[in-house]
Design a protein that fits this description.
The chain has about 325 residues and is mainly α. Helices cover about 75% and strands about 0% of the residues.
Length: about 325
């Protein structure tokens, strides 16, 4: 029970900040006009800073098994998620191809950033958070390849270009510096000059998650009305079946039987508990999917996730011996 309360304590602030973002939008303190610029700051500056802060000096990311297996697991599980979700699209009552593809896309991808990162930081150590970023490389690659192909029903349509982005560049550079740090002793002036820079990076990184969660809450506030209508209850129920029941079981089985590091086991438990990602709502609009279906899946599983996330993390920790 102590472990469950620890997980619940870590989950509640995440949803609490999203709730604050929702009310900030309702009060017009966080306007929609600011979303795009704040998101650019978050993706291009704050998240890369958080990656640097988590990777530099991270001994867990000097082990080969934490550099190769996590991104592979991220890519494969995203592909499995999309495949399973597509099988349930018709059962959800979705008739058109854009609706079915959107359901497969949204229900197939878990929230691999703004919910899981703060949970990793709250529940585990920096080594685990660094491995999480490696796992997310594979998920991100799947998003812009398998995800875009699923959504469009054709090819990549330029989606592969999105793979090379500031977070990936930051991760690559930070990994190189992390390895270099094992045998390189910089001169004293360079050490002194670097300390203020590292402090700035740390501060920027600390701002990444709160700002991202506030923006998610604001986006949810904008689209609550749009998510109604159609076969909302049926869509949410089937999305929850895929995202909050079947995929957690598969993630936990992988964490239980895959011969991997304890850091990756922790990440698989966390990722399996996650609801659908919110970012694909924007991607859906860009690639001609069905926005209402995307909203129903993302918002519905996120609300239900408030109840299921602590349960799955607690059970997963017990199953895999993490607690």
């Amino acid at each position: 029970m102590n472990e469950f309360l620890t997980v619940l304590t870590a989950v509640l602030p995440v949803f609490g900040i999203m709730g604050v973002g929702l009310w900030l939008r309702r009060w017009d303190w966080l306007s929609a006009d600011a979303d795009q610029s704040l998101m650019r700051v978050c993706i291009n500056l704050l998240i890369p800073s958080l990656i640097f802060d988590s990777v530099l000096g991270n001994a867990a990311l000097r082990r080969p098994e934490n550099l190769l297996l996590p991104p592979l697991a991220g890519f494969v599980m995203a592909g499995v998620g999309v495949t399973i979700a597509r099988l349930f699209a018709r059962a959800a009552g979705l008739q058109t191809k854009p609706e079915q593809r959107t359901f497969g896309f949204l229900a197939g991808f878990q929230n691999y950033a703004y919910l899981v990162i703060p949970l990793s930081m709250s529940l585990f150590d920096e080594g685990t958070t660094g491995v999480l970023f490696m796992h997310n490389v594979g998920t991100e690659m799947a998003l812009w390849t398998v995800g875009v192909m699923t959504l469009t029903g054709t090819g990549l349509a330029g989606g592969w270009r999105k793979i090379v982005n500031p977070p990936l560049i930051a991760l690559t550079l930070a990994l190189a510096l992390n390895f270099l740090g094992t045998g390189f002793v910089p001169p004293a002036p360079l050490v002194l000059a670097g300390k203020p820079v590292l402090t700035m990076i740390h501060w920027f990184g600390q701002a990444a998650i709160p700002l991202g969660l506030l923006l998610i809450g604001a986006i949810v506030a904008d689209h609550l009305e749009d998510a109604r209508g159609g076969r909302a209850a049926r869509v949410v129920a089937l999305a929850a079946l895929v995202r909050l029941l079947l995929m957690p079981v598969l993630f936990l089985l992988l964490a239980r039987f895959l011969p991997c590091s304890v850091e990756l086991k922790r990440i698989l438990v966390l990722q399996g508990a996650m609801p659908s990602a919110v970012l694909p709502i924007v991607i859906t609009k860009h690639y001609g999917g069905d926005p209402r279906t995307a909203l129903q899946v993302a918002l519905g599983t996120s609300v239900l996730g408030l109840l299921t996330i602590p349960l799955w993390i607690h059970f997963g920790g017990r199953l895999t011996g993490l607690w």
